């Protein structure tokens, strides 16, 4: 008996040591393997007959796509989410949303902590990289940008507490409205929790067959959904900083200020653009009461943070409006948030760099602080990698689907930005197109910085400097 126990403990110890070594040697690869493994597990669960309402086996392409969309908190779907899945399937999807919403690196650090029962320096670095990707790279790190290593325990606690508490509050706000709409108590609570989880994780799945149509002019539902999406899109470092601010006097970091300021500007600018471009479109805002139109435009702008909910048929919007939403979805939300995209701080840094160049300043300055050059290099890399992923995916989908460019491009950017808004192109994709979009969601969710760090064989330190020569640019 003792031999069996000793053997069991020895096997577990080997697993723990291997996990520690793998997480220490390559945190990014460890995170990607964990993330991809969860997608495969959820795919297997959704392929079971018990996961569907009619007890049929969901085709592999649809099960895989739904699993990827759930874990990546995207919201794109190839099946009717409200009618296709059984209670078992919906519970599995909700678990996928919760798991995917906390972040790739944070998730890997938590799983590593469960296995190893300790949070060492590398595990702290792993979790911290979700709040500040610069930690993945060699060199000095501006700790004030996000979360310090000494605060990682607090970050993980904040992630867990904030997810549960915010979704509980949102559920509480949804329940009375659904009860007033004629739903019974159980249905109201279940659908309210589904709405709350889908909103906070910026997914956009709707548990009702009729979708968002009944709430197109409902200020309460739209406001609560919008609130959940905005909070989720700000990012856990911002939530962490704001929580500290309520408990005492703490100066907000540049990361927090840039996230809040840039997000507000993009939401307002997006709402104005959509309102102006869609005002006379009889198939979208033009069919609504003039009083409702500003609310719809604002709601759609909020959803481009990565929310994915929509009260109008996106496929019927003008091409100019789709292009505006393309740009907003590509940017996405805040770093280490449930939103996707290149992140609002990345856009802010690039804008500030262009402004500094126009003014003739040597340094990028904002809010009385200087942003170091390595942050700009990361920002440029993120944008270029993101644009490359979008371009390659769009070309591949145009080849296999033969759909119009504007529809395909919109859905590709929605997949990359894990947004979930769709022109209808996703539902009409062949199996090959579904796998391409799934890969795009995966790349968009794990993050271009994490992906690049995982692909790199190693980080090398160069002990010499080459001679300088300036090419002609511009």
TrEMBL record:
GO terms for molecular function: monoatomic cation transmembrane transporter activity. It is a multi-pass membrane protein. One of its GO terms (biological process) is metal ion transport. InterPro entries: Cat_transpt. GO terms for cellular component: plasma membrane. Keywords: Cell membrane, Ion transport, Membrane, Transmembrane, Transmembrane helix, Transport. The keyword Nucleotide-binding does not apply. Signal peptide: none annotated. It comes from the Bacteria. It is found in: Cell membrane. Coiled coil: none annotated. PANTHER family: KTR SYSTEM POTASSIUM UPTAKE PROTEIN B, TRK SYSTEM POTASSIUM UPTAKE PROTEIN TRKG-RELATED. This is TrkH family potassium uptake protein. It comes from Terrimesophilobacter mesophilus. The lineage of its organism: Bacteria, Bacillati, Actinomycetota, Actinomycetes, Micrococcales.
